[in-house]
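User: Please predict structures.

Assistant: First:
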Amino acid sequence: MTTETARVRQEDAIGTPPQRPTLVPAERYYSPAFAQLEVERMWPRVWQLACTVDHVAEPGDYFEYRCGPYSILIVRGGDGALRAFQNVCRHRGNSLCTGSGSELRELRCGYHGWTWDLCGVLKRVPNRKGFGALPMSELPLHAARVDVWERLVFVNLDRDAMPLADYLEAVPDDIAWCGLVDFRCYATMTIEVEANWKTIADGFSETYHIQTLHPELHRCVDDVHAPQVIWGHTGKSEQLYGVPSPHIKQPLSDEEIWDAYVDTQGALMGVGERTPFPHDDRHSGQSVADVIAACTRAFAAERGVDLSWASTDQMMRLHQYNVFPNMSLLTNADHLTVLAARPGPDPDHGELVMVLFTRMPPGAPRNKPADVRMPAEEAHPGLVMSQDLTVLPGLQRGLHQPGFTHVVLSNEERRVINMHRNLERYLELTESDCTSRGGETP
């Protein structure tokens, strides 16, 4: 680690305090008119995580991505190319496919039988003579942009959108050391939440809430020295695990820090609840973080993954990247989880999508992910995420209260502020409708 990197990592999450807090109109989180503006001006123009390479790895694999009223069909063609189309028959507007699957050879509408090949070229129209002159070449499927970064497949309805690589800005270079290509998706969990998509996304865009909402996690993560950076469409925060929060004034024993990590992150090192601190395996001079990192390397070795190259810092420092509008990628040397917040049937409902990965040996075969959907009350995604889910309905109700006109944001929440400022640009809001400029300017 360079001296400059070490200095930056000692910076706190607040950075330079602003003169005033940033104020965001609360109605953005529940107004049908504002949600309609998002549908018209933002969602069709941004890159969005749709699925993973593991969903569409082989010719004939397909995946339907939905966001609000929009449906995009991602298909792996017989030539190996990945393509995306608006999921609509050019005849009467029927959806061509739903869900995901394999061994697709053509796209045939189940209503009247119009059929396209996997390149989107119209091939068959039953009783074609009834249409008179019907040039087949003039009715291809409407294409959407599709691109891949590491294991993630992104789509964009705007055919003139900037390239994905430009949209992601500094993120790919910043995390290149981690080798995300070696992770494989084993499952996605879509959780139906009684909250706006922005209410959901805000929760994984700041660490300010850890000291209150996550008492167990607070005992094993440094939420103070958590430097943040804003690049534009994207931003980043870092948090070191295996150490107690500096907010905790009473010293914690090594066993207490270990127990807190086991309670909140134990699955990452393959241990169950109440697993005792491994005193017998501890080497002289090792910190608790060193012990946790060693256990995690040993757990990875059981599935053939060699993490001897990774330092304790690379094992224990969580890098959290936000990509506008709705994605957060959390990763370290042996962990990758991607979260996405999506709009629901109305502004007071949304979806939290958790995309779960495991690092595998280089060249490991693809796994077909298990995709599950459930309401929040049936979801049990671990202690920390369950705590996040529990608070969301109350947040959404509170936003409606007549005396609550603005969300009041700290510079510690500047990734939330940055999301709103990007949103304002896409929605082309007038200055009077924008957030106040109390926080740090990106």
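Second:
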Amino acid sequence: RILFIASTYGEGDAPDAAAAFASQTMQAATPPLDGLRYAVLALGDSDYAHFCGFGRRLDEWLRQQGATPLFDRVEVDGGDPADLRHWQHHLGLLAGRADLPDWETPAYEAWRLAGRELLNPGSEGGPCYLLTLAPPASGAPVWLAGDIAEIGPRLARGGALQPHREYSIASLPADGVLQLLVRQMCKPDGTLGVGSGWLTHIAQPGDSIALRIRGNRNFHAPVDGRPMILIGNGTGLAGLRALIKARRAAGHERNWLVFGERHAAHDNFCGDEIAAWRKDGTLARVDSVYSRDQPGRRYVQHCLLEQAADVRAWIDEGAAIYVCGSLQGMAGGVDAALRDILGAERLQALQHDGRYRRDVY
């Protein structure tokens, strides 16, 4: 396993210390790197035309050689502390140490827990809640669909802040509130996860929630009306829900949702809302996949493979693919299915063009 920290020089070039590696190793016929797992932290400045150019090329080269990313590339714009916290967040998950102190504590604002609704009563999965947060007294900041909420959890009401946790935002500023989908996580010893325990159990309606919004450039909706295929599972519906809301507000109706959970009877998150969007044309197509409603396990990647001809047709029409949800299992399975459907070269071209984007964790 290797962690790469890659800066960019000039117009997307490798820095001097990596110039020989870029011009020789990355250009030569090298042995396959099938056994390598890696992550890239790309340092850059968005004022330059080729933002994070070398980091992006390094990431693409490693994928071409068969290496497997531990998590998606993290890009840092001008040393942005929020981007670096996101890198630390991934490293903490990788090391099983999400409790390590933040390198730089976010500048939180005080939001208020206004509501908490259990979405899956009777589910064999962990309880999943729709949380509604009212904005701070100073007024709600502006965010875009795809952005992230950094939460400062507490072990007890009135207790000290713990290292931040990240959640996809499930609403838009126009809704007047910020909403999250959070699954209550339970550790082997029976204690609740720090972030989910705070949001789903310890904090009570009316309590103050320390929250900071982090921009997530790579998961913003397309600016035009191109078709979208939105793929996710579990609480990954949060990020997809915000994107669908943004598309609806813009009048873009070529949207195909592929969503997976356990049982239709208990895990049909936001089902009435999705049905209404299907009825009014916001969603041109919905495929819900419930893994445990048949003898053999069936996941979203299986649905994609079954609908391969339609996936190719949508891509031929210019569609973008957005994936949100679990890194383990779902994201890898979806990526493998898309490679099978479209071919590795075409999928990489979609990624190059910003038409294949992921927010996975």
